[in-house]
Amino acid sequence: MKIDPQLLFKCKCGAVQADIKGKLVEDCNCHCHSCVAAARHVESKPEFDGFSALNNEGGFAYAVVKGKNINFTTDIQSEEASKNIDYVKVGPKGKMARTYCKGCGTVLGGFQKNFAFLNRHAIFHQDGTPYFPPKTPINIMKKHAFDPAKVPEPSVQTFSLLGVFPFIPLLLGFGGKVAPKDSALYAGKDMSKVEVVPITWE
Questions:
Q1: Cα(155)–Cα(29) distance, integer angstroms
Q2: What is the distance between the alpha carbons of residues 185 and 183, in angstroms, rounded to a whole number?
C-alpha cells in the first residue's frame, strides 16, 4: 500500500503526536464487541471532544503500523504526557490495554511491542488534510458485531484471509521494535489498574 513518505498521527488537542514513516500495513473497520465497546465507552465520557475512532457504520476505523515506523514526537515519558494518557480494557480480565488521550478523549489505539492499531481518523497528511485509505477498507468481525445487519460491504464474518497475511510477520516480531522512549503506550501496562469497560453482551 503506497502512502506518503510521512504521515502525522495526533489526538485532537495535540497532547499526543507522532510521525508515521514507511507503509501502513492494513486499513480495516473492526465491528467486534470489544473494539466498538471500548471506543463507545471512552467517547461517552462528558469531556469527550476528540477524533472519534468509530466510522459512520459503527465500526472501529483502524490502520496497522509497524512498530519501527511510528515515532512519537511527544515525550511519552514526561510528567505532562503521563497526565494525558490513560487506558481501558474490556472486562475485568481483559488482557489488552487500549490507549486514549484524557485531554480530548481521542482513542489512540491498541499498542504492542512490534506494531500498533491506530485510530485512522487521527491520521493526517503533512499538509493537515485527513488520511483516507486508497481502497475501501474491509469490515471485519461481522459475526461479532452488535448489529450484524448494519455492517456494510465489503465484509467478512471474522477475519479476511488476505488481511491476516500481513500480520504474520508482525506477530513473529518482524515489525521492528518500538523506540524504548515510547514504551509507555505499549504492552506491559499494569492491567490490574486499568479502567474496565463493562461486558454487556454475554
A1: 9
A2: 5
pTM exceeds 0.85: yes
Mean of pLDDT values over 20-37 = 93
C-alpha cell at 11: 489526538
- In sequence order, what are the residues at sequence separation of 6 or more whose Cβ sits closer than 8 angstroms to the Cβ of residue 154? 136, 138, 139
pLDDT tens string 47-87: 999 999 999 999 999 999 988 888 888 887 777 777 888 99
Could you give the CA distance from residue 137 to residue 119 in angstroms, rounded to a whole number? 13
pLDDT digits 0-9 by tens, 138-148: 999 999 999 99
Pairing type for strands 26-30 and 138-140 reads: parallel
Distance CA 43, CA 37 (A): 10
What whole-number distance in Å separates Cα of residue 140 and Cα of residue 163? 9
Q: Are 27 and 141 in contact, with CB atoms under 8 Å apart?
A: no
SS3 assignment for the chain: CCCCCEEEEECCCCCCEEEEECCCCEEEEECCHHHHHHHHHHHCCCCCCCCCCECCCCCEEEEEEEHHHEEECCCCCCHHHHHHEEEEEECCCCCCCEEEECCCCCEEEEECCCEEEEEHHHEECCCCCECCCCCCCEEECHHHCCCHHHCCCCECCCCCHHHHCCHHHHHCCCCCCCCHHHHHHCCCCCHHHCEEECCCCC
pLDDT at 3: 46
| Structural contact between residues 144 and 33, judged by C-beta atoms closer than 8 angstroms | yes
